[in-house]
């Protein structure tokens, strides 16, 4: 179900077959493909793993970004917290990069997780050491390094996390963000 759907707002929604077809044209430059899976690859893996939940980032109902939320079987390699959920395969389509959509979508992520995974108290992710652009984005979005570093298939990974509090969201902060294509 779409989070407060509106034509001109950034929203997060679980991926459906409709979005899958629209994601066929998703574009990422080669230097970013070194660090993340394409939506098509991630959706294929999600269909084989019931603990992976593909999510689309929409602007005016157009998929502009993508991520997967992975439950305990994915999270456990990065944390001992069984109530953590892992973000993987996060990206913004190259045609929409540089417009602030990544930061907006990450701000919405906490509310999305709180609503759809109410037992979770932490969002974690692993980012490649060489991917400094992503590290800076995650820091600006409230993620902090948790002190764990691991070796991934393509190099050293930095594990970052964001605690989900039980406090109500600040009513001055909208659950959806404006966008302009």
From TrEMBL:
<protein>
    <submittedName>
        <fullName>N-acetyltransferase</fullName>
    </submittedName>
</protein>
<feature type="domain" description="N-acetyltransferase">
    <location>
        <begin position="16"/>
        <end position="165"/>
    </location>
</feature>
<dbReference type="InterPro" id="IPR000182">
    <property type="entry name" value="GNAT_dom"/>
</dbReference>
<dbReference type="Pfam" id="PF00583">
    <property type="entry name" value="Acetyltransf_1"/>
</dbReference>
<dbReference type="InterPro" id="IPR016181">
    <property type="entry name" value="Acyl_CoA_acyltransferase"/>
</dbReference>
<dbReference type="GO" id="GO:0016747">
    <property type="term" value="F:acyltransferase activity, transferring groups other than amino-acyl groups"/>
</dbReference>
């Amino acid at each position: 179900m779409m989070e407060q759907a509106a034509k001109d707002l950034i929203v997060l929604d679980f991926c459906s077959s409709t979005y899958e077809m629209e994601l066929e044209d998703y574009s990422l430059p080669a230097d970013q493909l070194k660090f993340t899976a394409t939506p098509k690859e991630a959706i294929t893996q999600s269909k084989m793993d019931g603990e992976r939940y593909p999510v689309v980032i929409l602007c005016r109902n157009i998929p502009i970004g993508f991520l997967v939320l992975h439950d305990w079987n994915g999270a456990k390699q990065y944390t001992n917290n069984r109530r953590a959920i892992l973000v993987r395969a996060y990206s913004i389509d190259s045609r929409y990069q540089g417009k602030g959509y990544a930061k907006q979508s990450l701000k919405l992520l906490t509310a999305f997780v709180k609503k759809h995974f109410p037992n979770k108290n932490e969002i974690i992710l692993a980012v490649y050491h060489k991917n400094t652009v992503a590290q800076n984005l995650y820091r600006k979005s409230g993620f902090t390094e948790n002190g764990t570093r691991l070796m991934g298939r393509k190099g050293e990974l930095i594990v970052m996390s964001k605690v989900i509090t039980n406090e109500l969201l600040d009513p001055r902060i909208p659950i959806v963000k404006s966008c302009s294509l």
